[in-house]
């Protein structure tokens, strides 16, 4: 069983390198692939030097030869977004390195070796499982929403608004008792900050949809897995820490700009995966205009 980890970088080389360093002594991971998503800064050069230095020290410490290069730097020809960058890393892991399983991790997450092992174990023991994740904690140790059901158009629309999301929270999310007493649950979709995939199943379903630049990737992946008859699993007795989209916030500081990108991805998802027709898309346009107005006001008031 071969496991690789993919970490995607964009204009955030220092944090990405620190994330890769944390995996140095994880024996369960055979290779760490750092994909630079065509960053306009000099980040790739720093990542490439880091990978070379880590491999050199790794060889000196182990005095062994291995078919895997422990750290690998890969550069995308263009920034095709989150999905395209991670697809590139997964394909490299599967086609070049022969990895059966791949952990996709954002630079701003911390996870233990035990967590990595448990995720792989969950996939390897269930032939129908294709994606697995663990509970997500914030930087202060509080639990965050890690998994959700695959909702219909109306549910997704309500979930996209900051006010409606709170009002209809009980209707559009799993109940509080859904996870109680269960160490592992089948869910619709899991948060994209950390997940482990069966590489063959993931690529067989087309991987992430590269028509989406950012946001909604989790829902699309969940839909693809469900359509192919595969399971998405959440382990509820182990967790990882997620600091909270530091790469995205660094590149897109303006909340309104991020919301516009999110809404574009949502429209694509509604139309192409939830099969929303003209009427639903017209309602979506009105609803999103209100949400964008709310976002702008909140930003001016310093609420977000």
Can you tell me about this structure?
This protein is an alpha/beta fold and 304 residues long. The protein has a domain of 206 residues: Spore Coat Polysaccharide Biosynthesis Protein SpsA, Chain A. It contains 12 helices and 12 strands. Strands 1, 2, 3, 4, 5, 6, 7, 9, 11 and 12 form a 10-stranded mixed beta sheet that branches. The protein has a two-stranded antiparallel sheet with strand order 8-10. Strand 6 and strand 7 form a beta hairpin. The longest helix has 23 residues. The chain is globular, with a radius of gyration of 19 Å. The mean pLDDT is 92.
Quick structural summary:
45% of the residues lie in helices and 20% in strands.
What are the salient characteristics of this protein?
Spore Coat Polysaccharide Biosynthesis Protein SpsA, Chain A; ten-stranded mixed sheet; alpha/beta; 304 residues; two-stranded antiparallel sheet
């Amino acid at each position: 069983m071969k496991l690789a980890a993919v970490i995607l970088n964009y204009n955030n080389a220092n944090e990405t390198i620190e994330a890769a360093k944390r995996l140095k002594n994880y024996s369960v991971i055979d290779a760490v692939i750092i994909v630079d998503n065509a960053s306009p800064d000099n980040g790739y050069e720093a990542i490439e030097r880091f990978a070379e230095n880590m491999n050199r020290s790794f060889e000196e410490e182990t005095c062994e030869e291995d078919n895997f290069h422990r750290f690998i730097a890969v550069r995308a020809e263009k920034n095709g977004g989150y999905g395209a960058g991670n697809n590139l890393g997964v394909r490299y892991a599967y086609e070049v390195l022969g990895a059966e399983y791949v952990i996709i991790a954002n630079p701003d997450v911390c996870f233990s070796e035990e967590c990595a092992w448990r995720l792989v174990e969950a996939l390897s023991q269930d032939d129908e499982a294709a994606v697995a994740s663990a509970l997500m904690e914030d930087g202060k140790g509080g639990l965050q929403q890690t998994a959700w059901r695959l909702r219909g158009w109306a549910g997704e629309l309500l979930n996209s608004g900051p006010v409606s999301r709170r009002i209809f929270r009980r209707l559009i999310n799993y109940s509080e008792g859904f996870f109680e007493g269960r160490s592992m649950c089948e869910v619709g979709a899991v948060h994209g900050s950390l997940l482990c995939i069966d590489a063959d199943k993931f690529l067989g379903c087309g991987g992430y949809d590269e028509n989406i630049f950012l946001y909604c990737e989790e829902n699309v992946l969940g839909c693809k897995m469900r359509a192919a008859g595969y399971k998405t699993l959440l382990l509820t007795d182990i967790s990882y820490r997620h600091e909270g989209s530091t790469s995205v916030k660094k590149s897109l500081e303006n909340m309104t700009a991020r919301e516009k990108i999110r809404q574009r991805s949502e429209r694509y998802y509604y139309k192409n995966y939830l099969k929303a027709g003209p009427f639903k898309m017209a309602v979506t346009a009105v609803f999103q205009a209100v949400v964008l107005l709310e976002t702008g006001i909140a930003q001016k008031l310093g609420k977000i």
